[in-house]
Amino acid sequence: MAARPRFTSRATVLVLVLCSLVAILAYPTRQFISQRAEISAQRAKAEHARQQVEQLRRDKARWQDPEYVKAQARARLHYAMPGETPYIAVDPAGAGAAPSSAPSAPADGTAGGAVKAAKPWYSSIWDSVDAADTAALAPIPAGPTPPPARPHP
Q: What are the distances in angstroms from CA 42 to CA 35, 48, 49, 107?
């Protein structure tokens, strides 16, 4: 009996057709999957934007209430109604001060962070301009000093 060939011409043509179909459909399938992922990302982004819009609408509605505006002016800007005496309580230790067991003093010799925070903003800016000017006037070293010469034995 003659040995039967493993692949007939029909089987070979069928394999080639299937491989061609896979090759032809691979790119559109990949595009479809990537577009579906992009669509879901855009939907999530739209949902996030929708939530932000709703939050902003709620905030806008709150700001339409005159009592809320008064409360915010009192809390944020320290405003007071006519006839009232406003007080601002200051923690002598400082709100963000370090524990007393570990005192810290800045290298420039000032009292500490609480005093720096009490200065107005324009004073801090002027101090930084002065510091930059002082640094600009400081002498600049000529360059690295050569190592000392060693005597030859």
A: 10, 10, 10, 52
